[in-house]
């Protein structure tokens, strides 16, 4: 595979790089580029804030900050900062757990739900453009590879603890 046709850089040559290292680099660079584009997409919130709302929406019950942090793949402190900003804007509500008052749970507010509904069509258009020309088989392969990488990261974390 010619990595130079995939890379967005005209300044470097990737031909000698092992595929795993190239994949990790291109995923990191893609994440940065996508975040820059997505941050400009919504006027009210950032991509990371919207990602937190997306993650909240997949829980069957309002999660704790730790549960949300795990799903988002981010630290408790980073997620807490994102939630504070979303709460200040009225997009989420933080409330005490009914059984354990020490725990805080998070839910999307009515204003947050209204925001999601009003931006759904445009968001779907953006996702459609992002995934244009990618087959189901390509998605399955990419998800499989990233899933294995995710498993390996968790194993590395366990070794370090």
Highlighted features:
2 strands; 161 residues; mainly alpha; globular; single chain; two-stranded antiparallel sheet; Arc Repressor Mutant, subunit A
Entry summary:
The chain is mainly alpha-helical and 161 residues long. It is built from seven helices and two strands. Among the domains are: 1-39, no CATH class; 44-109, Winged helix-like DNA-binding domain superfamily/Winged helix DNA-binding domain (Arc Repressor Mutant, subunit A).
Please give a structural write-up.
With 161 residues, the chain is mainly alpha-helical. Among the domains are: 1-39, no CATH class; 44-109, Winged helix-like DNA-binding domain superfamily/Winged helix DNA-binding domain (Arc Repressor Mutant, subunit A, Orthogonal Bundle). It is 64% helix and 6% strand. It has helices spanning 3-6, 19-39, 47-57, 65-72, 76-88, 110-130, 136-160; strands at residues 92-96, 104-108. It has a two-stranded antiparallel sheet with strand order 1-2. Strand 1 and strand 2 form a beta hairpin. The longest helix has 25 residues, at 136-160.
């Amino acid at each position: 595979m010619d990595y130079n046709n995939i890379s967005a850089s005209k300044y470097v040559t990737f031909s000698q790089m092992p595929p795993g290292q190239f994949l990790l680099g291109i995923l990191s660079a893609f994440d940065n580029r996508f975040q820059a584009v997505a941050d400009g997409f919504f006027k009210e919130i950032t991509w990371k804030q919207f990602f937190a709302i997306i993650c909240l929406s997949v829980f069957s019950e309002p999660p704790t900050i730790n549960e949300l942090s795990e799903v988002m793949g981010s630290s408790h402190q980073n997620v807490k900062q994102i939630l504070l900003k979303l709460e200040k804007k009225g997009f989420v509500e933080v409330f005490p757990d009914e059984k354990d008052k020490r725990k805080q749970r998070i839910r999307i507010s009515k204003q947050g739900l209204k925001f999601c509904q009003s931006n759904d069509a445009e968001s779907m258009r953006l996702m459609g453009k992002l995934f244009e020309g990618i087959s189901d088989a390509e998605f399955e392969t990419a998800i499989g590879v990233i899933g294995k990488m995710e498993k390996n990261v968790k194993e590395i974390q366990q070794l370090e603890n």
